Amino acid sequence: MVFNLPQRVSIKDVQNLYLTGQATVSDVVNYFLEMIKEKDKNIQAVVRYNEELSKKLAGEIDQLLSKLAESEILDLIKTKPLLGVPYVMKDNILVEGEELTAQSKILDGYKSTYSSDVYNKLTQAGAILIAQTNMDEFAFGSSTEYSGFGQVTHNPWDNDRVAGGTSGGSAALVGAGVIPFAIGSDTGGSIRQPSSFCGVVGIRPTYGSVSRYGIISSTSSFDQAGPMTNTIDDNNLVLSVLQGKSLNDQTSIETKTKNETPKIKIGFPKEFLGDGLEPAVSEIFTDLRNNLSTEFEIVDVDLPLTKYNLSVYYILQTVEAAANLERFDTVRYGQQKGQEMYFDGRSQLGDEAKRRVMLGTYASSSGYYDAYYNKACQVRELIRRDYENAFENVDLLIMPASPFPAFKIGEKNNSDPMSMYLADIMTVSQPISKLPGLVVPGGFIENEDSKLPVGIQIVGAEGSEIDLYKIAKKIKSN
Ligand code: GLN
Question: Is there an atom of ligand 1 within 6 Å of 196 CB?
């Protein structure tokens, strides 16, 4: 192969190779497969390569391209914006005929019988899946240390640290510079927190704007899939391919992306920027505020119910997760093991998954339903109103995606499970309120002997993605 691609490769960089005839799609697929295999020795982000599938898709596109002139390829890219672009995807999004486990032993050996809307849309746009990525079992966790198979993904900036979770495998590969884009899913931060830890651009879209059909449900009223990329334009492009109402998902909505706001007013919520932030993270936000204030009106904002975010999230999350996991009963889904079909089968669930089933079953049981689940639903509505009030005064909010940069492997999973839950403090209120959140690299912290990225989270009202990208372009540091 004689072509060159930059280290932080963009979608355009890849497609230029086809326009100038420097490479075939098959060459490019091989190139990325080789790069990932080399890098993955250190970061352990891949759970499965889709070599047969990717070679087949690449071959088909190559056949098509071989008959086209440059201008015709350009035209084709207008209707298939991801033409010939390889990507990786989290192990909880279905691809017909490919294996899928959501990193649970209970699904070991399972092959998807149909494809998700996300996969179908990406394929229709010309993208090529080359690998599926590591995650915490059933997307419960915050570090990608909780795979049921024991695989732990390492941060590409410092291999002793976590990549973040639960879409850690996807974020780590983009952060390592070995893939133009990756798909993750975000229930309570699983796209945004690993994007922050790995120094990539990642969006959790407005709830319902990306169909959940064919994504293994963690928490149906929170789950959203979204892209992780090196550049903001690429993020926007992949998101535009993914969004749209689907008849397969009753909660999906037509994208109501609002028009660009001409004079954006930005709020900095006090509750997200006060005590509890690591000082070096806090400094990055102070500098950012100063920089932005030369161009934008900036005000302090109150989100007084922030203190209830984690309690509300973990009650609603576990209740919905416990219900969603019922289908893995080894009869409908899941491997049968041992003599006692249900008990032996269910015992294949990992500790964190069992914890969620127990907590969620308790919080929704007839004796405790009013005290926990019902109360959490009521407070959810109040938290949503907090944001609604804030957006009467400002257009966007800026806050961290995590109070600290990537932590050390083993630092939180060996102790009390609460310490892992506390890591989600910055990323659960947006899903509670159905809002989009975009994370962009905002700077680095020099830590011991490594340099760790810190992400900036921009949050807007439903459908405000266009404004999020606009401000992101003013912020992104690299
Ligand atoms: N850390 C959160 C949880 O464990 C969010 C995970 C996610 O977004 N999938 O529930």
Answer: no
Establish whether residue 413 lines the binding site of ligand 1, counting it when its CB lies within 6 angstroms of any ligand atom: no
pLDDT band at 447 (very low <50, low <70, confident <90, very high): confident
Report residue 162 as tokens.
Answer: 């976590």
- Atom 10 of ligand 1, nearest CA residue: 140
- Evaluate whether 196 touches 203 at the Cβ level (below 8 Å): no
Q: Is the CB of 213 under 6 A from ligand 1?
A: no
DSSP letter string, 189-257: STTHHHHHHHT-EEEEPPTTSB--TTB--S-TTT-EEEEEESSHHHHHHHHHHHBS--TT-TT-----P
- Residue 251 in any domain: the answer is no
List the domain range (segments joined by +) for residue 122. 11-242
Number of domains in the chain: 1
Distance from the alpha carbon of residue 457 to the mean position of ligand 1, in angstroms:
16
pLDDT of residue 1: 66
In a domain, 43, yes or no: yes
The pair of three-digit structure tokens given for residue 282, joined into one six-digit string = 């806090």
For the domain that residue 230 is a member of, what is the CATH number? 3.90.1300.10
pLDDT digits (tens, 9 = 90+) for 380-415: 999 999 999 999 999 999 999 999 999 999 999 876
**Beta partners for residue 299, in sequence order:** 267
Residue 426 lies in a domain: no
Instruction: Determine the residue of 183, 221, 424, 457 to mutate for testing ligand 1's pocket, defined as the one with the most ligand atoms within 8 A of the Cβ atom.
Output: 424
**Secondary structure in 3-state letters for 373-431:** HHHHHHHHHHHHHHHHHHHHHCCEEEEECCCCCCCECCCCCCCCHHHHHHCCCCCCHHH
Query: Helix (H, G, I), strand (E, B), or coil: what is residue 86?
Result: strand
331 confidence band (pLDDT: 50, 70, 90)? confident
Q: Rounded to the nearest whole angstrom, what is the distance from the C-alpha of residue 188 to the centroid of ligand 1?
A: 5
Would you say residue 257 lies in a domain? no
Residue 184 has pLDDT above 80, yes or no: yes
CB-based contact 242:198 (threshold 8 Å): no
141 CB within 6 A, ligand 1:
yes
HSE of 4, CA atoms in CB hemisphere, 13 A:
1
Minimum mean pLDDT range among 97-106, 177-186, 228-237, 344-353: 344-353
